[in-house]
Amino acid sequence: MSDAYDFSFKSIDGAPLPLTTFKDKVVLVVNTASACGLTPQYEGLEKLYSDYRDKGLVVLGVPCNQFMGQEPGTEQEIKDFCETKFNIDFPLTSKEDVKGDTAHPFYKWALAELGESADPAWNFHKLLVGKDGKLIRAFGPRTEPQADEITAAVEAAL
Q1: Which of 12, 26, 36, 57 is catalytic?
Q2: Hey, is 57 helix, strand or coil?
């Protein structure tokens, strides 16, 4: 597989969500969780999305329950939580594994492309995909969505 556009997720509503939907956009793919100490990053992710959406940024949340069971809810519960607690407007996928043998193929590809930095160590790990579908870089879970290094990378990619 040559780029991110080769992959498809399922939306949180159950509809197909091929990454080709975001062709020619910059995509920040983030594995999310509703019951994590880092969950407040949803606020920064939404702000980043609203600040750069019109310039071509998409934030894509990938709910994941692999880290201490911090995303135990159903898709509907996750969606309701994100919309009511954080006013999330960016797209969310269905719940996926992001690590190990059961990882979604996108995450296996990212690991093969970028190496260890692309392997999520925890919730809110971020992968930046360029307009051409190539991975640009990974950001660790503790890197806030509006940190200078993320906004600078997003702006450079746009």
Answers
A1: 36
A2: strand
Question: Yes or no: is domain 48-131 CATH 3.40.30.10?
Answer: yes
CB 29 within 8 A of CB 60: yes
* Residue 145: φ, ψ to 5°: -55, -30
**Residue 19, H or E segment:** none
Q: pLDDT tens track of the chain, all 158 residues?
A: 589 999 999 999 999 999 999 999 999 999 999 999 999 999 999 999 999 999 999 999 999 999 999 999 999 999 999 999 999 999 999 999 999 999 999 999 999 999 999 999 999 999 999 999 999 999 999 999 999 999 999 999 99
Tokens of 11: 């939306």
36 in catalytic set? yes
Torsion of CA 69, 70, 72, 75, to 10 degrees: -130
